[in-house]
Amino acid sequence: MSDLVVKRLPAESGTSGWEAISKRCFPVRTLDGDVSADWLVIGAGFAGLSAARRLSQLRPRDKIVLLEAGEIAKGTAGRNSGYMIDVPHNLSSGEYSVAGESATKAEIAQNRFAISFAADAAAEYGMSERTFDPSGKVNAAATVRGMRLNANYGRSLESIGEKHSLLDAREMREITGSSYYLGGLYTPGAVMIQPADYIRGFAAGLAPKIDLFEHSPVLRLERLGGSWKAKSRSGTVTAPKVILGVNGHIEDFGHFRGRLMHVFTYASMTAPFAGRSTGKDRWALLPADPMGATVRKISSDGSSRIVIRTRFTYDWAVQVGEKRLAGIAAEQRASLDARFPDLKDVPFEHVWAGRLCLSRNHVPAFGEIEEGLYSACCENGLGTVKSTLAGVMAADLATGTRSDMLDEFSDQPGPARLPPEPLAWLGVNAVIRLQELRAGREG
Ligand SMILES: Cc1cc2nc3c(=O)[nH]c(=O)nc-3n(C[C@H](O)[C@H](O)[C@H](O)COP(=O)(O)OP(=O)(O)OC[C@H]3O[C@@H](n4cnc5c(N)ncnc54)[C@H](O)[C@@H]3O)c2cc1C
After folding, report:
1. Cys bridge to 342: 63, 170, 277, 394, which one at CB 3.0-4.6 A?
2. CATH topology assigned to domain 3-442
């Protein structure tokens, strides 16, 4: 009989600006007592919430319980940059387009399937355009190398018939107000979310159909007489089928050990400002070199903010320290000032980090990993879309809902084994740092 004792719980580093400016409009409920359910979903990020929504569609009469260790939108799901990307973008490769034509097409189809699932939820749960904005995004280039990467990216999009347009330095200046960029490549299919509002709106919309308990970490998961029993601090949930949407924390449940890379990335959000040279009200830039800076402007009620994300570090810990956050925020300040000299006196109001989960061979940790226990984990850095898809696919797999999408998604190898530590730590950090240095002014 399986008895999984959860070794470590999530912990957050800094306060996400997205969460700080988002309003919560539903009460927090914590598990108190012993509950039986048809389904237990663990983790209320993109994967867990999407799995729960899909289960509620497929099995409307079943009782679905969702347990979250922390609070909705305070974890990684509410602290990302909010790019739901349809066209491939692979963090670990150092390039945007990595696969052959048919694999790229299949990946785009999967990403669009996930985005349309999210769009249906956004419409049903009444999310505004500020929360879920199908605006597309620009891959911005600040160097000759970035321009070359964009040109290559454009050619691969061309070869598979994907719409895109190239922007020159003047057009980039019109959008952003900055002379920093030499050019850009616009793709229309990306959706920009306010991640904390999206996750909160999703949870609030789903709440009437499920039992969501926050501050209710699963500390132990035990297989007893054909069911799983999850123990939290002041209660238990017993259910025949469980979906794990805990991303890298799946290792703490005893699965995929030595196969997952835990990588932090870092972000800062300015205080609100008005009347500066920062172009249009809203724009979203990804770096032409994936190791560069993601920069986004949002506006509401006459004031704007800019959010900048840079750097990746591979760490064993679940949290990074204040000193690291402050050091990277200082680098981000320099990157922002170089792009927007007019904002030099506008301070950062929020500085934070969040934890991604990558596998060496860029595949998810997906499938039925023990009888009645399903994994929708390891998002490979782009979980707004990938974890949404994994959550839906896990619900389909667990309910026996067959589809070509599920066959394709299930037909992937598992995450490859990493070299032993500290070799993995040394190797991954060295590769990341080299790629970041190569990104130069893109960062
Ligand atoms: C700064 C930053 C910028 C990013 N930008 C983007 C972006 O622009 N686009 C993009 O696609 N992705 C981006 N990401 C990545 C994205 O946020 C993640 O890929 C996504 O959140 C993963 O979703 P998930 O549901 O798999 O996992 P998570 O969002 O991590 O959710 C897992 C949940 O499981 C819970 N949990 C863990 N253990 C337990 C337990 N024992 N009991 C109960 N609950 C538990 C956690 O508290 C957590 O809420 C970014 C990340 C960061 C940090």
Report:
1. 277
2. FAD/NAD(P)-binding domain (3.50.50)
